[in-house]
Amino acid sequence: MTLENVNSPLKLNNGVEIPCVGYGTFRTDPAVTAQAVKDAIQAGFRHIDTAMIYHNEEGVGQGIKASGVDRKNLFITSKLWNTDRGYESTKEAFQKSLDRLGLDYLDLYLIHWPANEKQFGPEASRINAETWRAMEELYEAGKIRAIGLSNFMPHHVAELMKTAKIKPMVDQIEVHPGWSHSEEIKKIQAMNIQVEAWGPLGGQGATVLTNPTMEKIAAAHGKTTAQVSLRWVIQQGVLPLPKSVHVNRIKENMDVFDFELSDAEMAEISALKDLGGQCKDPDEVDF
Ligand SMILES: NC(=O)c1ccc[n+]([C@@H]2O[C@H](COP(=O)([O-])OP(=O)(O)OC[C@H]3O[C@@H](n4cnc5c(N)ncnc54)[C@H](OP(=O)(O)O)[C@@H]3O)[C@@H](O)[C@H]2O)c1
After folding, report:
1. Does residue 109 have an active-site annotation?
2. pLDDT at residue 110 above 70?
3. What is the pLDDT of residue 106?
4. 87 C-alpha to center of ligand 1: Å?
5. Strand ranges in 176-244 using DSSP code E only, listed in sequence order
6. Which of 47, 75, 201 maximizes ligand 1 atoms within 8 Å of its Cβ, making it the mutation to test the pocket?
7. What is the pLDDT of residues 171-200, one digit of tens each?
8. CATH for 9-203+237-244, among 3.40.190.150, 3.40.50.450, 3.20.20.150, 3.20.20.100?
9. From CA 32, how far away is CA 175, in angstroms rounded?
């Protein structure tokens, strides 16, 4: 399928359509979130990514209302934070997210990070399985149109699938030049799970956007390094979630459908290393 703009649909494994680029809200100050989300929607974004831990779900909800766009025409994602894992607490946390957003359903709800063995030892798998069971029930009850994972590497997904009734529709992982996760992307895609890229520009403090290789490729196409980074993500069949609170950058990040990177350029970008970003190993985090 040819993607023509940020709202060109990708089809998830349950048939639900998701706009192929989403608007990120991590580190968006709650005080400016409503305005930023309204700006993003009015610029044309229909897909918004938030999370309980961003402490800005209220602002996202206000921005949605202020945008004047019918909620049915938006795709809204939130995520279950780590302290809310478990069967009962997942259901409670989901309802609290809905209440803060002022919505009566979500398009996508994700487990933000897998419980890992470093923190939970042999209990980690059971905690993830119980959390997923609650997600499945919320999905079956029609409160969420699609359910998925975040920061689950292929081995975490495989472990979850031993007990899952419903296959996750999405896995959102960190992907940007310098942290390409190429093998993991292919493995997750082979399971028919849509990969989303968080930090697709490298996030705060990264050197992706000033890297000389990125600058050379951007100049060759008359685009910015941010646009090249997003294009590199999209051409791998991955769905990027760029965040900006500036209207000019929001529009710049949408304008990535009038050029194509060659196979050589894709490979050159994929080979870049050490450009910063969070680069966290989900098996090693202690939060
Ligand atoms: N699942 C997870 O664990 C997880 C973790 C992190 C993030 N996420 C999601 O993924 C989204 C994106 O990740 P991220 O916010 O960490 O990083 P990002 O989108 O890669 O980068 C955002 C940074 O780049 C700047 N920026 C945006 N557009 C730009 C442009 N065209 N030119 C130059 N600078 C630009 C932004 O500044 P301004 O805002 O000042 O423009 C901000 O500092 C998040 O917002 C969140 O929704 C998920």
Report:
1. no
2. yes
3. 98
4. 31
5. 194-198, 239-240
6. 201
7. 999 999 999 999 999 999 999 999 999 999
8. 3.20.20.100
9. 26
